[in-house]
Specification:
This protein has about 425 residues and is of the alpha/beta class. Helices cover about 45% and strands about 15% of the residues. The chain has a 7-stranded mixed sheet, sandwiched between helices. A 4-stranded antiparallel sheet has the order 11-12-15-14. The radius of gyration is 22 Å and the shape is globular. The chain starts with a helix and ends in an 11-residue tail after the last helix. Bound molecules: pyridoxal-5'-phosphate (PLP). Pyridoxal-5'-phosphate binds next to helix 5.
Amino acid sequence: MSYLASTDPEVANLLQQELERQQSGLELIPSENIVSEAVLEALGSIGTNKYSEGYPCKRYYGGNAIIDKIESLAITRAKQLFGCDHVNIQPYSGSPANQAVYFALLNPGEKVLGMSLPFGGHLTHGWKVNFSAKYYVSVQYPTGKDGYLDYDDIARIAKEEQPKMIICGATAYPRVIDFQKFREIADSIGAYLVADIAHIAGLVASGVHPSPIPFADVVTTTLHKTLRGPRGAMIMCKAELAEKIDKAVFPGLQGGPHNHVTAAAATTFLEAMQPSFKEYAAQIVKNAQSLALELLAHDFTLVTGGTDNHLLLIDLTNKGIPGKVGEAVLDEVGLTVNKNMVPFDPRSAFDPSGIRLGTPSMTTRGLKEEEMKIVGQVIARAIAHHDNDEVKKECRQHILDLCKRFPIYTTLSYNK
Ligand SMILES: *Cc1c(COP(=O)(O)O)cnc(C)c1O
């Protein structure tokens, strides 16, 4: 019997149920992925036992000789993978990483310009309920009517508002982001440029999406989205900002780093350097485009009409149901998606018009263009017959069949 099952059968059983949920449904939430067994092993390691406040070879606790090597290895690999000057691998997650950047570059009350959340930006880019709008003055840019970033409009807002920092990057934007244009806008007013590539890091690392490293002063990313690593984050920056960034993370905001996550991050970077990961990243985009074509063929409305990356935004208005019904119906058939606002959404954040879906997890399972057509057809049928239990049962069976053909974690078990 596993240690967990014998010590705590209650948690073991719940984890087993979650494992079976992940195995028997397709995950279409674009910010999620399925890490390798190797990453899981590093994440579940004894790194968690150690306190290591400080940075490699500059710690406030003894016994860190080996942890220093683990953190240095993660940093060396991250630098190689992204081609950046400096890396801080300690932020606990994406939001704290962004908070550290604000703390490093701005004084409270100074102005920041970020993408508006209802148009695809992240909470931490200056949305009203978040620290980034409460402790700083926040100005937000929308997309154009067509759903694309409108760089002329962003330049106009920047000139009018004179923010000290501009954040680009998104959480629900299906197209390529032009980091060079953002650099030009930032330079025109002498602002810092921060690129948050949380969603697209795996695509950037593989050259499937252009890199912001040559253009941005600071680049933040999570590790657990397209990069396919543990929940965590890192900050990359130019050498001249390294000290400010490091001091903001520790001792500015955090205590000890999560060394088990750092170990898993190092393994993630090694995996991401392999040729097979480049193929994976390219396949993510091919799959998203194949799914987009199938959905368009079934008269779905896609924001911007398609995708360049790993995600799609569907406006369900013409299908006669709101996003939350779409989310619930697809959940019933074994497809996990999330309801999402679309640009200029007449509905609310709690009850938006659209759903957001992506291909990183399905691509990790090995599904390709052919299977995306099946998934697209299942989505179309389930949505069209959302009140027909017979049809939904058939759809559920199609998804179960796909899950059996592309299994995950075949040797893993928590309750035995
Ligand atoms: C996911 C995301 C984050 C936040 O990451 P958490 O780990 O959830 O805190 C930050 N920025 C963007 C653009 C994201 O998509």
